[in-house]
Amino acid sequence: MAREAGALVRDGRPEHVEVAATKSSAVDVVTAMDAESEALLRRVIARERPDDAILGEEEGASAGTSGLTWVIDPIDGTVNYLYSVASYAISVAVVAGPPDPAEWTVLAGAVHSIVDGRTWTAGLGAGATLDGEPVAVNPAGPLATSLVGTGFGYDADRRRHQAQVLVDVLPQVRDIRRLGSAAIDLCLVATGSLDLYYERGLNPWDLAAGALVAQEAGARVTGLRGRAAGVEMTVAGAPQAVSDLVVILEAAGADSDGNR
Ligand code: IPD
């Protein structure tokens, strides 16, 4: 399903992509393809799993009766899609439990990177794969030699504080990458192309599939101050490396938006 939607997004890309609408701020954009890709994913789910609920980035929640919910991001990395920067993906996860993401169990997930065609998959307790081959996170090393991915929100005040957090993180790590798709970032942790990743403000559709891929590849995926990963903060990487980064992020108040 993720590959089918990926083919639609890849083959249907016009030469000049237009912004169809904006959401939380002028820089939080939607294209016509976001809606088309979500419509395709919803059609497949409705055909194959008519009793399941769906939570999608563009159309929101539709109810089901099975207790399972498909959590879908039709293009994760929409700004990259807009500018033809190669990191954008379809993210699909299926979760069990009540509608509150804090109480979900993510059962399976797939992240399909549209431009290079790579697909990561994971099943709870069944490991993670990239194009069918098992993957594993890098062993924890010192922060000073760790490559760290992150991302920024769409709100100016949040970004101001995120820039301040970066002032504390950047001098202590090998380098920072802001690649523009949270789902792919989490998969890059799973495959060892990033040692660590952190971001505040992720929505369930950005996070669900990639977090399971990272976790099943041996990552610890967590929030700060003993809380679970989620909208407040998500940190992923080898367990000891995550513990080291968490100390810096907690001290910097990275799970807040600072003093507005
Ligand atoms: C965004 C991307 C980006 C992250 C943002 C997300 P979208 O998702 O994952 O990397 O920094 O927080 O909202 O809007 O392109 O689906």
UniProtKB/TrEMBL annotation:
Coiled-coil segments: none
Domain of life, source organism: Bacteria
Required cofactor names: Mg(2+)
GO molecular function: inositol monophosphate 1-phosphatase activity; metal ion binding
Catalytic EC class: hydrolase
Alphabetical GO biological process terms: inositol metabolic process; phosphatidylinositol phosphate biosynthetic process; signal transduction
PROSITE patterns associated with the record: IMP_1, IMP_2
Catalysed transformations (reactions): a myo-inositol phosphate + H2O = myo-inositol + phosphate
Binding site for Mg(2+): E57, D73, I75, D76, D206
Keywords noted in UniProt: Hydrolase, Magnesium, Metal-binding
The enzyme's E.C. designation: 3.1.3.25
Key word Iron-sulfur present: no
Family label: Belongs to the inositol monophosphatase superfamily.
Name under which the protein is recorded: Inositol-1-monophosphatase
